[in-house]
Amino acid sequence: MASKVDGPGLAKLETLDRAVKDIQRLNTVIERMAQAQRMNQPLAPFRQQIHRAATPVASLLKIQFGPIADMITNLVLVSTRGGTDQQKVRLLRESLAQIRVHLEMADAKVKKAHALEDKGKEGDSSAH
Question: What's domain 7-113's architecture?
Fold first, then answer.
């Protein structure tokens, strides 16, 4: 991390960091689901795994990043809806991609909003 961040910013960044790791786990489940769909295997076990992987992330983000938590809850709903398996896999991948983008945007926003100015490091000798 190049810039310094204040205490509340660090807490938010830690929350986002943990969420990104959990989202990677969710991505693994969805990609395994896609592979099973290609091989015409049943997808029912993956729905439960998605629910188990997504619920803690949604509750983690609910307090500080409510809209992203709502997107994760929507992903769980997509996994339980009817439709073809191919449509479900596509929608889950799209939902996960949106969540990742929003997590990256939230990370950048937190770093910008909670940045501390580093006095003296730049050497403000421009004012004579």
Answer: Up-down Bundle (1.20)
